[in-house]
Design brief:
2 domains, two-stranded antiparallel sheet, 4 helices, 2 strands, binds zinc ion
Length: 131
């Protein structure tokens, strides 16, 4: 079953698989991303505004790359990205190391409670079937 969608970038219709944009635009985005990586590698002292200016990629998008862990932050960008939980300066991702550990623990606990709920449900099921 094919799902046709309109590409939000170029407005063309394309066969939707998983990417929200069409293959052409995706390729273009990859090229842009590569140029950003190259620029940051060659100009590690540039801050976010400068990188944005030189690559034509908005600061918001650059930050998204960093938060997705795709772009390593350069020396010039230090302090521009902060942990979403505690505000500590970080080098990549969304949280600082301390908060990553805390968040992971929370996720573990969530899974634990879920597991217990499922076990409870099974027991309830068995009780019901007996009657
Ligand atoms: Zn497109
Ligand atoms: Zn933090």
């Amino acid at each position: 079953m094919m799902e046709m969608r309109n590409c939000p970038k170029c407005k063309r219709v394309f066969n939707y698989i998983s990417s929200p944009i069409c293959p052409d635009c995706e390729k273009e985005e990859e090229l842009v991303f590569d140029s950003v990586v190259d620029y940051v590698k060659n100009n590690p002292e540039s801050n976010l505004a400068k990188v944005s200016q030189e690559t034509g990629v908005s600061a918001k998008k650059l930050l998204r790359y960093v938060k997705e862990g795709r772009l390593e932050i350069s020396k010039g960008m230090h302090g521009e990205i902060r942990c979403e939980k505690c505000g500590a300066p970080i080098l990549k991702g969304r949280y600082c190391d301390t908060c990553v550990i805390a968040v992971n623990q929370q996720i573990d606990e969530m899974f634990e409670t879920k597991k217990q709920d499922t076990i409870k449900m099974h027991v309830m099921d068995r009780i019901k079937h007996r009657n």
